[in-house]
Write a structure and sequence with these properties.
This protein is mainly α and about 575 residues long. About 65% of the residues lie in helices and about 0% in strands. The chain has helices at about 1-5, 10-20, 25-45, 65-70, 80-90, 95-105, 110-125, 130-150, 155-165, 175-185, 185-215, 235-260, 265-285, 295-315, 325-340, 345-380, 380-390, 395-410, 415-435, 440-450, 460-470, 490-510, 515-520, and strands at about 475, 485. A hairpin with a 6-residue loop joins strand 1 (about 475) and strand 2 (about 485). The radius of gyration is 30 Å and the shape is globular. The N and C termini lie far apart (about 70 Å). One of its GO terms (cellular component) is plasma membrane. It is found in: Cell inner membrane. Keywords: Cell inner membrane, Cell membrane, Membrane, Transmembrane, Transmembrane helix, Transport. One of its GO terms (molecular function) is transmembrane transporter activity.
Length: about 575
């Protein structure tokens, strides 16, 4: 019996950990406790393992170095920066302003509020990167409005929960930072690879809403005229966009002639946006009324968060800043935006610091526990067990990706995305590399798959976040004076299922079309016309030519090294 346990220590250790996690024990302590317990068992059973267990008591001295590698990891500094930025923006009222403005813009069309929720979800994802903040903010702000004007409860709840989960895949996602660290790849490359899949997923959400609005228009009514407090004025907005495009075009040519064409596109676009934004502020401040109220509001509300996204992601993509530096600039930018809105206070900063500290400590403790677990797991050759198990799957690369996707999908019912990233992902790196799979592509597949963990009924975290703020009892609407029925848990789960199916389709799309991610490498280099010319050495010639190796005047030939009349080796004392 003891010999059987010794020979199968790795699968027993892994199964025991999963069991303890399913029983609800804290992740960090379960990891550390399993690592230490099985380390003791492994040392005692090592003589019975036929060499498959490589554990000894002195190996415990490696733990301090492993802990220090976590605490000194500069990449993980991006997590508190982006968390702080997201909490500040959420508490500064940015989500409320965005939802109100975009809802007014799309209000005249069927499903306009649902479109606004998805678009704002993408913007919040690109500025906050925190799912809980996005779902709770939109649940508090947009759900009562959607219920007020007769939206189907399931569709409304599903749209809010799904758009909030975009923070998982749209940069600067915290999950992408952790995945890049666990896969040993650049966070900037991970951001570039995930950008197109994230935008594609957002487009699929919008397409689903459009189809529902066409098939069942009563479920997604247009905003009534009396609710459009900003009035009309789309023409004014179109004119402002045309003016921005014209200024961008002219500025591009001016910058290209003066400073070169390398950064003329970005500088020209920045100039066009800045001019239109300043004009909108001037128009509102001086009450010139050149623009409509709707155009003013859209420009003034949308441009600051988009500028912050460009500041953070643009500097990372252009190689100007590291993700940690980009996160620091984003945190400072969030403080400035909150101060500009006159919503920056000591209580807001205190709440942001508390949330940031809580999440950062959560991540650090899980990482430290994972270091203890992995020391023992690698000592019992668990990584080789996982690699042999997955590499030998039928179907090669495709079979591996499908099996891993199914595995992560079902584990996501019970495990958080951080738990999946720290426990499962490190075990998948070696098999993926053995099969020649690009790890950035693999990481994006895992990120889209982990995103489903937020939409799984009945365990999805986004569904629980929405349940915490959705009305549980009937209430009297303060605008219409009507009694609004509550939102049931079953309606939230039912609304999540179509969006969960869309996410599963997206996993297949990313697997089937890897170039959606592979573009992060840039255009391929054409090597057909590359010529390599070796320099000639004076007095020696080339290889195999007169004066070269093995030829007259070369090494070993008359006049060569070690030959009469050639260079002589040094003699002792010279």
């Amino acid at each position: 019996m003891m010999e059987f346990i010794a020979l199968n220590m790795a699968p027993i250790m892994f199964a025991s950990l999963i069991l303890f996690l399913l029983l609800g024990y804290p992740v960090a302590f379960s990891l550390a406790a399993h690592g230490l317990l099985f380390f003791f068992i492994g040392v005692e059973l090592a003589p019975l393992s036929n060499g498959s267990i490589n554990l000894s008591w002195p190996l415990l001295a490696a733990l301090p170095d492993r802990f220090w590698s976590v605490l000194s990891n500069e990449t993980l500094l991006a997590i508190p920066f982006f968390t702080f930025m997201g909490v500040i923006l959420e508490r500064s009222g940015m989500a409320e302003d965005l939802l109100d403005t975009i809802g007014q813009l799309f209000g005249p069309i069927r499903g306009g509020l649902a479109y606004a929720v998805v678009l704002v979800g993408a913007l919040l994802a690109a500025t906050t990167g925190v799912v809980a903040a996005s779902v709770i903010a939109m649940g508090l702000i947009s759900l009562p409005i959607m219920l007020r004007y007769g939206y189907d409860r399931s569709v409304a709840a599903g749209a809010i929960a799904a758009s909030g989960t975009l923070a998982q895949i749209v940069p600067p996602s915290l999950v992408l930072i952790v995945l890049a660290d666990q896969l040993g790849r650049s966070v900037g490359d991970m951001y570039k690879g995930a950008l197109i899949p994230g935008l594609t997923l957002m487009t699929l959400y919008l397409l689903y809403i459009f189809v529902i609005s066409m098939i069942q228009p009563k479920k997604l009514p247009a905003l009534p005229l009396e609710a459009r407090t900003l009035g009309s004025g789309v023409t004014s907005l179109v004119v402002a966009l045309a003016a921005c495009a014209a200024i961008t075009w002219g500025s591009h040519h001016w910058f290209a002639a003066k400073y070169g064409a390398n950064n003329a596109d970005m500088l020209g676009f920045a100039a066009g946006v800045l001019v239109v934004y300043l004009f909108a502020l001037l128009d509102r401040g001086m009450k010139l009324n050149v623009m409509s109220r709707l155009a003013q509001q859209v420009i003034i509300v949308l441009i600051p968060p988009l500028a912050l996204v460009f500041l953070v992601l643009g500097t990372i993509f252009l190689g100007i800043a590291t993700p940690t530096e980009g996160g620091a600039m984003g945190a400072v930018g969030a403080l400035l935006l909150a101060a500009a809105k006159k919503r920056l206070s000591l209580s807001v900063i205190s709440a942001a610091v508390a949330s940031t500290t809580r999440l950062s400590a959560f991540v650090m403790f899980i990482l430290i526990g994972a270091r203890v677990f992995s020391l023992t797991f690698y000592g019992v050759n668990g990584h080789l067990w996982v690699e042999h198990l997955l590499v030998s799957l039928p179907g090669g690369e495709l079979g591996f990706l499908l099996v891993v996707s199914v595995l992560v999908f079902f584990l996501a019912f019970f495990l958080d995305y951080f738990e999946l990233a720290f426990i499962i992902v490190p075990l998948l790196v070696a098999p993926a590399q053995a099969l020649g799979i690009d790890l950035i592509w693999f990481g994006v597949i895992l990120a889209v798959n982990m995103q489903t963990s937020f939409m799984h009924p009945p365990f999805g975290f986004a569904l629980h976040f929405l349940r915490s703020v959705a009305p549980r009892q009937a209430y009297l609407d303060r605008i219409t004076g009507r009694t609004i029925a509550p939102v049931t848990t079953a309606q939230i789960y039912l609304g999540a299922i179509p969006f969960l199916c869309i996410q599963l389709v997206m996993i297949g799309v990313v697997i089937g079309f890897p170039q959606m991610v592979m573009h992060y490498k840039g255009p391929p280099v054409d090597t057909t016309n590359v010529t390599i010319t070796l320099p000639q050495m004076p007095g020696l010639g080339g290889l195999g030519v007169p004066g070269g190796l093995g030829m007259p005047g070369g090494l070993g030939a008359p006049g060569g090294l070690g030959a009469p009349g050639g260079l002589q080796p040094p003699t002792p004392g010279n």
